[in-house]
Backbone:
């Protein structure tokens, strides 16, 4: 087969036969959306190097992209092998082409491609030269899913070497400062990621250059990380603000003092390296991230394995309940871990079924994906999307034995406050529970006795080293932990302290 792809007659051009594909500067892209633009195809390659040519085969939903070097092409194919590229919510597929270079003609189709190449390449190069800083300020708007330091590292590492990251909450907004090894990488990340959603329809990145020229990190933990200094202690979860410009940039108290659940144990000593993310520092690993999160704009629900809930649908049908034990309150507390529950109705004639109305479709999705199949009162929950768009309250004068409850004004909602740190503490049900708001007079034995009073087994207990208002408690099983969370969340411990209980990502 010829090693040159010729655009003279794109109608007759067959494209590549699918094969293992030896490395080549030319990349074959398939299953493109029919209304794809040249700029969108070129943007797939720009983070990895200069794109030197483009051949669009719109009738076949395919394209050929030529990179400036084989190395750039290999980096691109390697990266997208681990992180599915998504254009307009549609996954696209890449492989090395059998062709070694592209030759294109002067047809209108190709002139348009060449014009797009010139426009994108010049803006890419000119602005890269003038990157004002290696430090980016990242604000995440519409934070419906937790975004972690590791997640940001995975996303931004696509554009170059990330040296340091600090995350914090300022003005009720999740923000981060992120330092690259060079301005070119910082500019490429800003150009490509600014305005993108990490998840479909939410967690929008707003990126600007910081006035800071470098970050000074004292501790490696879940709020700050220096990838050049793996020897740093985990500290007390507070990023160091020693740099004079940083000290001036933040007023005292802006950085949220409450560590994430389990954070005092430091981050795990080793993360898996994703093949696409290399590190220039020997022995230094880069945190791995679920593919869907890093492939910006892929719905989070695809990662969780559930169909996407349409916007406006926030009512879940919960079945296989234990009719002897289930109450609206217990469903309110359990589902409230993943969103704000508005109303609960246990069906009058079928008490093993209930309707749970969440605040919005995203929270309904979170609750369904985390709780479906979990055991409650000895039976696995079955959760599906209800055909109802809201839960009706009983008409005045019609009693339904307390089976329908309205919680829309409940003080126990965890997510009322925008940017609440509870968004960062959403974890699947686990045998270990995170306890907070513990008064000073309550000791370990008090809490162990309280949790075993329900008949559950307490396997381990540990106060947070730096903050005795928080602790981890490990139950005998996930089912026991679910029962204890329902029983003891908001339990009155005295001294106006009501216990806060959530699932922990750490074990003891």
Residues:
């Amino acid at each position: 087969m010829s090693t040159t792809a010729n655009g003279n007659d794109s109608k007759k051009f067959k494209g590549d036969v699918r094969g293992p594909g030896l490395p080549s500067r030319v990349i074959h892209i398939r299953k493109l959306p029919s209304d794809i633009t040249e700029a969108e195809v070129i943007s797939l390659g720009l983070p990895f190097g200069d794109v030197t040519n483009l051949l669009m085969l719109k009738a076949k939903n395919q394209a050929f992209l030529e990179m400036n070097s084989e190395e750039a092409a290999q980096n691109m194919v390697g990266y997208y092998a681990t992180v599915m590229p998504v254009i307009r919510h549609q996954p696209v597929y890449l492989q090395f082409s059998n062709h070694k270079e592209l030759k294109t003609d002067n047809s209108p189709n190709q002139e348009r491609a060449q014009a797009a190449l010139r426009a994108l390449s010049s803006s890419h190069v000119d602005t890269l030269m003038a990157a004002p800083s290696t430090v980016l300020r990242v604000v995440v708007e519409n934070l419906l899913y937790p975004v972690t330091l590791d997640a940001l590292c995975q996303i931004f590492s696509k554009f170059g070497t990330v040296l340091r990251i600090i995350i914090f909450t300022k003005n009720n907004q999740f923000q981060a400062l992120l330092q690259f090894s060079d301005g070119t990488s910082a500019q490429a990340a800003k150009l490509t990621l600014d305005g993108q959603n990490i998840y479909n329809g939410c967690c929008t990145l707003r990126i600007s250059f910081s006035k800071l020229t470098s970050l000074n990190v004292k501790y490696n933990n879940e709020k700050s990380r220096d990838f050049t200094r793996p020897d740093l202690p985990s500290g007390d979860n507070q990023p160091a603000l020693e740099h004079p410009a940083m000290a001036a940039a933040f007023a005292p108290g802006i950085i949220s003092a409450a560590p994430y659940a389990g954070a005092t144990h430091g981050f795990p000593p080793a993360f898996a390296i994703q093949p696409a993310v290399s590190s220039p520092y020997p022995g230094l690993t880069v945190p791995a991230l679920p593919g869907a999160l890093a492939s910006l704009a892929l719905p989070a629900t695809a990662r969780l394995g559930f169909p996407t809930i349409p916007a406006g649908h926030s009512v879940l049908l919960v079945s296989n309940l234990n009719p002897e034990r289930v109450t609206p309150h217990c469903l309110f507390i359990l589902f409230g871990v993943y969103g704000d529950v508005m109303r609960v109705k246990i069906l009058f004639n079928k008490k093993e079924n209930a309707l749970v109305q969440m605040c919005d479709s995203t929270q309904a999705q979170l609750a369904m994906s985390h709780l479906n199949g979990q055991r409650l009162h000895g039976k696995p929950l079955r959760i599906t999307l209800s055909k109802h768009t809201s839960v009706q309250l009983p008409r005045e004068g019609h009693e339904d034995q307390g089976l329908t409850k309205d919680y829309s004004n409940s003080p126990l909602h965890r997510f009322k406050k925008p940017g609440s740190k509870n968004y960062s503490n959403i974890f699947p049900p686990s045998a270990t529970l995170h306890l907070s708001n513990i008064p000073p007079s309550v000791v370990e034995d008090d809490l162990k006795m309280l949790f075993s009073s329900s008949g559950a087994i307490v396997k381990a207990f540990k106060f947070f080293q730096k903050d005795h208002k928080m602790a981890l408690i490990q139950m005998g099983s996930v089912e026991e932990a679910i029962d204890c969370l329902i029983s003891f969340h908001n339990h009155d411990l005295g001294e106006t302290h009501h216990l806060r209980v959530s699932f922990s990502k750490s074990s003891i």
Observations:
- The radius of gyration is 26 Å.
- The chain is about 25% helix and 25% strand.
- The CA atoms of residues 344 and 356 lie 5 Å apart.
- The chain has a mean pLDDT of 77.
